[in-house]
Specification:
heterodimer; A: alpha+beta; Alpha-Beta Plaits; four-stranded antiparallel beta sheet; B: 15 helices; globular
Chain lengths: ~180, ~375
């Protein structure tokens, strides 16, 4: 419990948190994260600006894979493995396969998005040093918490404290792991 | 910039003149073919004011900042309602040559509904209702603010009336071309088609003439989202109609599709589905492309072209004697020129509602 892990600040309002985060980014900090009880409009673009292409591309790829997979299951079953004459229609009848193809595409895409999101966020994670901070207790209820991590190349305790105080932080703590 | 726009305007006017000349010549030498061509043109252009009224009434109930950017263009689209709704008269004067139910065979059970007198009464009701709703949609609204909360029930009621009247209009004007064919979902497909037509023209006008800067760029993204959603909705209902009728394979219903598949209009099926769904869907799927001017222009043009082909596909294969294509195109351009001119004129007079950064276009024509 001696090594410094980061500095945490607790804010009363989402606006104060947003302004503090914007100030941190302007000052050149990169490794910081916000913890809020509900999504705060625009905060994600302050903390991680630019285009995040990984998940959209993963899901688009999964959509194409899922559609092809779903169509193939039906085509293999109906046209190759066990051809049945249904009302004299061709074995490879795309209108009939469309609904299954769509549903399967949806399943694969949503699964890729869900698990991709978990992987990209580093979840599931059973423990984080931040849990030790007193400020963090109300982050899921009515407080807005901002944490600058030690990993930031510009990490400087005093400068970060000044930014937090300037924006009306209710409590500032050093988190150790 | 200015001179090239004047040059463009000159070309547009020349095209319009050619369209009018072609329509007049066609009406004289082939009156029956003219009626079909004009019916298609009427059905297509009606989408512009209908979509405008629908979106304004929906916004009254839902709200949304995007209306700040869309309001002037939507208002201009709604201003075309009198012309676009009354243009049907030119087609309906020849009702007997357009619709076979005007001289019904014995045993047709739906003549109590499908007869000329009731048809004209319904047409009159639609025109009056839609123009009243259009006037209501232009009244006491500015920028992103919807109608006063105390009046929003009127917008809700208006939407219900609009949905019902549009459904019956679609049945009267298009579905009744084949009086033995019935599809319960058809009214949805046509309503979605009309909305996509108008929405694509409105977003195209915004992208071409009033492309917003800065924060307002998000508004275009929202409008593109609405367009993407209704494009998907159209594809969904259109495919559901095909799937159900294809699965039933009934003698009364499947000929409607076979007639189109085996006609000269078969390519229009691919244009309608490809440019009306596949292309705009793939283009607008990615979030940043919804704010990209070039991509939005391509997607809107694609949808507009697909709706023209779709309208022809709905009407033309019903007639055994083919209409000359030049007449189809001429009628589309002749009414289109008038509607677009009215739209452009209304857009200029709607400046006080325009974006703060001002319009980038001030061509002098009309």
């Amino acid at each position: 419990m001696t090594e410094l892990c980061g500095i945490v600040a607790e804010f009363n309002t989402p606006e104060a948190l947003t302004h503090a985060a914007a100030q941190l980014r302007r000052s050149g900090f990169r490794a910081f994260e916000a913890y809020t009880p509900y999504p705060v409009e625009g905060l994600d673009r302050i903390i991680r600006p630019g285009r995040n292409m990984l998940l959209p591309l993963l899901m688009f790829g999964a959509a194409i894979l899922g559609a092809a997979w779903g169509y193939w299951i039906q085509y293999w079953d109906e046209a190759l493995n066990y051809p049945l004459n249904v009302g004299g229609r061709p074995h490879n009848s795309w209108p009939a396969f469309m609904v299954g193809t769509f549903e399967f595409m949806l399943l694969v895409t949503v699964a890729a998005g869900f698990f991709g999101m978990l992987a990209a966020s580093g979840l599931p994670k059973l423990y984080h040093p931040l849990f030790e901070a007193r400020s963090f207790e109300r982050a899921s209820r009515d407080r807005f918490v901002l944490c600058v991590e030690r990993a930031d190349p510009r990490f400087d305790t005093d400068a970060i404290r000044r930014v937090f105080e300037e924006h009306g932080a209710q409590r500032i703590e050093e988190v150790r792991a | 910039m200015r001179s090239s726009l004047n040059w463009l305007a000159l070309c547009a006017i020349a095209l319009w003149a050619a369209g009018i000349a072609g329509t007049v010549i066609g009406a004289i030498i082939e009156p029956a073919a003219f009626l079909r061509a004009w019916l298609c043109s009427y059905l297509f252009w009606l989408g512009l004011p209908l979509a405008g009224v629908t979106l304004v009434l929906v916004h009254d109930l839902s709200g949304g900042d995007w209306m700040a950017t869309a309001r002037p263009t939507l208002a201009a689209a709604i201003m075309t309602m009198p012309l676009a709704s009354l243009a049907g008269i030119a087609a309906f004067v020849g009702l007997n040559s357009l619709y076979v139910w005007t001289h019904p065979a014995a045993g047709l059970t739906n003549v109590f509904y499908l007869n000329s007198t009731d048809f004209f009464i319904r047409y009159g009701v639609f025109v009056v209702l839609w123009n009243v709703l259009a006037a209501y949609a232009l009244w006491r609204r500015e920028g992103a603010a919807p109608i006063a909360p105390g009046l929003s029930w009127l917008s809700g009621l208006g939407l219900v009336a609009l949905a019902l009247s549009v459904s019956f209009a679609a049945i009267d004007w298009i579905l009744s071309l084949e009086p033995k064919f019935w599809s319960a979902i058809f009214a949805y497909t046509q309503a979605a088609s009309w909305f996509n037509t108008g929405m694509a023209i409105v977003v195209l006008a915004i992208a071409l003439l009033a492309w917003p800067a800065g924060e307002r760029r998000e508004h275009v993204g929202d409008l593109a989202k609405i367009l993407l959603a209704t494009t998907i909705f159209w594809a969904y209902v259109e495919f559901m109609q095909l799937l159900i009728i294809w699965e039933e394979n009934l003698k009364t219903e499947i000929p409607w599709y076979l007639m189109r598949l085996n006609s000269a209009w078969k390519p229009a099926i691919y244009v309608s589905a490809g440019l009306g769904f596949v292309v705009p869907f793939l283009l607008l799927l990615w979030a940043p492309s919804k704010r990209n001017r070039a991509i939005i222009i391509i997607a809107c043009v694609s949808i507009v072209v697909s709706r023209v082909a779709h309208t022809w596909l709905l009407v033309m294969p019903e007639f055994s004697s083919p209409t000359p294509f030049w007449l189809d195109a001429a009628a589309m351009v002749a009414l289109g020129g008038a509607v677009v001119l009215l739209f452009a004129w209304a857009l200029r007079s709607a400046h006080r509602l325009a974006a703060a950064d001002g319009p980038i276009w001030r061509a002098d024509y009309g």
